[in-house]
Amino acid sequence: MSVTNFCSADAQNASAPRAKVTFQTLQEKKQHGQPITALTAYDYSTARLVDEAGIDLILVGDSLAQVVLGYDTTLPVTVDEMLHHTRAVRRAVKRAIVAADMPYGSYHVSVQEGVANAARFMKEAGAEAVKIEGGRNRAELVERLTDAEIPVIGHLGLTPQSVHRMGGYKVQGKSMAAADTLLHDALALESAGAVAIVLEGMPREVAHHVTAKLNVPTIGIGAGPDCDGQILVFHDLVNLSFSKPAKFVRQYGDAAGLFRTAIEGYLQDVEKREFPNESESYHLTKETRAALESASPLRRKA
Ligand code: KIV
């Protein structure tokens, strides 16, 4: 079934079960000029919501180091921590592609170690793809992973694992030479077998140019609207990241506000003894209650 038929059928019947998304689906979406939707998720409940909403690709991003675990950068998160979160997301997701980020250090020592770590994400956590940061310097690894039946998503531009080398989180590809390097890195990843490439933190024009030159889909974040798809960090989308949002973030909700109101309401109700109330309490039968009270009279609270 073509992507066009698949989508128009969905439009006619919004409750119809939607077909499993594959990298073939993303490729077809690029060919038909249909935007690819992607979001991060790190746990069962949010992954369920993201999947049930119909997002195409869910990335268990190493951004979890910052937004879930409270680190300053993505560097400290480990393979075991990433596996733990990927498993939770896997249990929630039926339709979207589940991809896992390879954390810093898990593919930087040797190609062999990179393949072994990536295989853990597929085998132990049910990931359908891994994402790695870097360009030509990762081409051999992408080739070996592809040989090992592991779909690879590349990641170019502002690559957070390179924060110290870049001297901060800075937009990349701003000169002609840097834009050219980005394009050649993207082409090298594609030739090595990458199935999609994330373009992060680069001028719109550069992302547009790279997207037009590639056969595989690009997924942008801070790279303008001309990529084949878009991704955002879930916590940024719903205002739960406790930091000033970057220029490219659009907040579609206020989870922090919602949670604060709920927590404050609970706190006040408990302090005023208004929670739980009678209808939120379990009761004995009349007879058992009478027996209990005669054996040991209940002391009433003031
Ligand atoms: O870790 C992450 O969240 C990412 C992005 C592309 C959103 O790499």
Summarize the structure.
By secondary structure, this protein is α/β, with parallel strands linked by helices.
Give an overview of the whole structure:
The protein has 302 residues and is of the alpha/beta class. The chain folds into 2 domains: 17-253, Alpha-Beta Barrel (TIM Barrel); 258-294, no CATH class. It contains 13 helices and 8 strands. It has helices at 3-12, 23-31, 44-53, 64-67, 79-92, 111-125, 139-147, 163-166, 176-192, 204-213, 234-237, 255-271, 286-295, and strands spanning 36-40, 57-60, 97-101, 129-131, 152-157, 196-200, 218-221, 229-232. The protein has an 8-stranded parallel β-barrel with strand order 1-2-3-4-5-6-7-8, surrounded by 7 helices. Strand 4, helix 7 and strand 5 form a beta-alpha-beta unit. 3-methyl-2-oxobutanoic acid binds next to strand 6. The site of 3-methyl-2-oxobutanoic acid has 11 residues, from strand 6.
Question: Between the first and last Cα atoms, what is the distance in angstroms?
Answer: 69 Å
Provide the succession of SSEs.
HHEHEHHEHEHEHHEHEEHHH
**Main CATH class of the largest domain:** Alpha Beta
Strand content: 5-15%
Average pLDDT works out at: 94
Read across the widest sheet, the strand sequence of neighbours is 1-2-3-4-5-6-7-8
The CATH superfamily of the largest domain is identified as: Phosphoenolpyruvate-binding domains
Rg over CA atoms: 24 Å
- Unreliable parts: 1-12
How many distinct beta strands? 8
Shape: elongated
| Count of DSSP H/I helices | 13
Structural class based on helices, strands and sheet pairing: alpha/beta
- According to CATH, the fold-level topology of the largest domain is TIM Barrel
CATH architecture level-2 label of the largest domain? Alpha-Beta Barrel
Total domains: 2
Which ligands are bound?
3-methyl-2-oxobutanoic acid
Q: What fraction, in percent, of the residue positions are helical?
A: 40-55%
Major beta-sheet overview: 8 strands, parallel, barrel
